[in-house]
Amino acid sequence: MIARRSLLTGGAGLLLAGCDRVVQNPTARRILFAGEDMQRGLQRALSDRAALAPEFRPDQMSPIFRANGTHNPGTPEYAALAQNNFADWRLAVGGLVDTPRRFTLAQLRTMPARTQITRHDCVEGWSAIGQWTGPLLGTVLKAAGVRRSARYVVFHCADLFGGIPYYESIDMVDAFHSQTILAWGMNGHMLDVAHGAPLRLRVERQLGYKHAKYLMRIDAVASLDGIGLGKGGYWEDHVDYDWYAGI
Predict the structure, then answer these.
(1) pLDDT for 45
(2) Looking at residue 247, what is its pLDDT?
(3) How far is 10 from 200, CA to CA, in rounded Å?
(4) What is the pTM (predicted TM-score) of this model?
(5) Is residue 192 very low, low, confident or very high in pLDDT (cuts 50, 70, 90)?
(6) Do 119 and 129 form a contact (C-beta atoms < 8 A)?
(7) Confidence at residue 50, expressed as pLDDT on a 0 to 100 scale
(8) Most buried of the four, 142, 150, 186, 204, by CB within 10 Å?
(9) Do the beta carbons of residue 8 and residue 125 sit within 8 Å?
(10) CATH class of 4-239
């Protein structure tokens, strides 16, 4: 079976043509995102869900790390937050939790942080290696008292696609993976706007579109049925991307 990473990062002209052309081509979408249930089931059955994504040395970091997706939400609300260095920004954590929380950036920075140098694989056909720093998502969820009935974590973002705020989701296994972090730092500096300031998800064993940027709210939920159109993410709902984007 051809590895998904090889398909996405190899010499396939389809992907190198760019994300927009893939999105606009129904045949390309079917080829690229076919067999979600089989791919997800096989990967989860045959692999250790706790296995780590490869990590790299500082000298292996990419000299240029492209920004994926939106480069700036461009809304008045986000501009006001950025102008004040995100001092007024809050990350809301709710849903199936015992104690809904609203974390400031300063509070998140006081939490134990993990720094990891990993490779970002974009569905557009490019990859880059960068360093990310932030608390484990699991730490934040535990601080809010996530309930056992929660099966998924949904991320709501400040950037808009067609007027719709971006959203994504992962399951609890990936949420509590030891490399799944809420990154406030990149390459030794605070996140910049193009890369998702003030906070972005890093879920290192999945493709780049799962790494939601410009986080505003996190909800623990029992089902994805009421999220967007029911597939758990913006691209999944609107252009048939896989919900499970494991690599």
Answers:
(1) 55
(2) 81
(3) 27
(4) 0.83
(5) very high
(6) yes
(7) 83
(8) 204
(9) yes
(10) alpha beta
